[in-house]
Amino acid sequence: KQEVTQIPAALSVPEGENLVLNCSFTDSAIYNLQWFRQDPGKGLTSLLLIQSSQREQTSGRLNASLDKSSGRSTLYIAASQPGDSATYLCAVPGGSYIPTFGRGTSLIVHP
Amino acid sequence: DGGITQSPKYLFRKEGQNVTLSCEQNLNHDAMYWYRQDPGQGLRLIYYSQIVNDFQKGDIAEGYSVSREKKESFPLTVTSAQKNPTAFYLCASSPQRDGYTFGSGTRLTVV
Fold first, then answer.
1. What is the chain B residue with the closest CA to A97?
2. Cα–Cα distance for residue pair A56/A63, rounded to 1 Å
3. What's residue B1's pLDDT?
4. Considering Cα of A25, then A27, then A28, then A29, what sign does the dihedral take?
5. N- to C-terminal Cα separation, chain B
6. Binning pLDDT at 50, 70 and 90, where does residue A111 land?
7. Rounded to a whole number, what is the distance in Å from the CA of B56 to chain A's nearest CA?
8. How confident is the model over A20-74, as pLDDT tens digits?
9. Distance of CA B30 to the CA centre of its chain
10. Helix H segments across chain B?
C-alpha cells in the first residue's frame, strides 16, 4: 500500500526566504505526483503535476522535482511571501488510480 | 471555465436527519471522489467512482451513500447512521491517469 510522508509538518519563516518542502513515497511505480495548496477552510488548489517521465516542473516561483527511484519529490518556493502561507500537500496515485495524500506541511511566512 | 462545484458551502444537520452534498463537474472526467477532512487529520477517502453507474467504498464509507447516475454528478448522502458527521467534505475528479481537480468543499455541522 502506498504511503506518503511530508517533512516538515510545520514551517515558520520570515518573508524572502527560499523554502524546500519534502514529500516521500514508498512505492516508486507511480504515474505522476501532484502538489496542492490548501488555504484554511478552502478546497485544494493544484500547483504542479509532474508526470513519471519528468524530473521537474516549474510555475513562477515554484519548482517541483521528482526522483522516482528514491521515492522523493521536493517543492521549492523561491523568495517566499506572506501570501504563500497555507498548507501544502503532495499526492500520488495508488491502486485503481486512487490518490494517496501526505498529511501536509503547514507554512507560515511572516512579514 | 471548467471545474467542480460543491454545494452548499455550509450545511447544518439535525440529529437523525439525512443530508445530501452536491458535487458537479464539467471537466468530462471519468473518475470522481469524496473525501472527509477533520482538523489535524489528513484526507480520508469515503467513496469513489471510476465510471457512471459504478462506485466503490473507500476507507470510511460507513454512514455514507453515493450515486453516479450521470458522468457530471456524484452526490454524497450523509445518513443518520454516521454518528460523527461534523467535518469538511471535499469532492474531486480526474481523467484516467492524470491529475486531480478539487471542489471548494462543504462544511457540515451537526446542530
1. B97
2. 7
3. 65
4. negative
5. 36
6. very high
7. 10
8. 999 999 998 899 999 999 999 999 999 999 999 999 999 999 999 999 999 999 9
9. 15
10. none
- CA within 13 Å, CB half, B60: 18
Q: Does B61 touch chain A (CB under 8 A)?
A: no
Measured in whole angstroms, the distance separating CA B84 from the mean position of its chain's CA atoms is 16
A106 to chain B, any CB pair closer than 8 A? The answer is no
DSSP-assigned beta bridge partners for residue B108: B11, B87
pLDDT digits (tens, 9 = 90+) for B41-76: 889 999 999 999 999 999 999 999 999 999 999 999
- What's the gap in Å between the CA of A31 and the closest CA on chain B? 7
Q: Which residues of A fall within a CB distance of 8 Å from B33?
A: 98-99
Under an 8 A CB cutoff, do B50 and A96 touch? Answer: yes
- Residues of chain B with pLDDT > 90: what percent? 83
B21 touches chain A (CB under 8 A): no
Size of interface A-B (CB pairs under 8 A): 53
B9 contact A CB<8A:
no
| DSSP classification of residue B98 | S
Which among B102, B84, B86, B77 is positioned nearest to B6, based on CA atoms? B102
A20–B contact, CB cutoff 8 A: no
Please state, in angstroms and rounded to a whole number, the distance separating the CA atoms of residues B110 and A107.
30
- A99 has a chain B CB within 8 A of its CB: yes
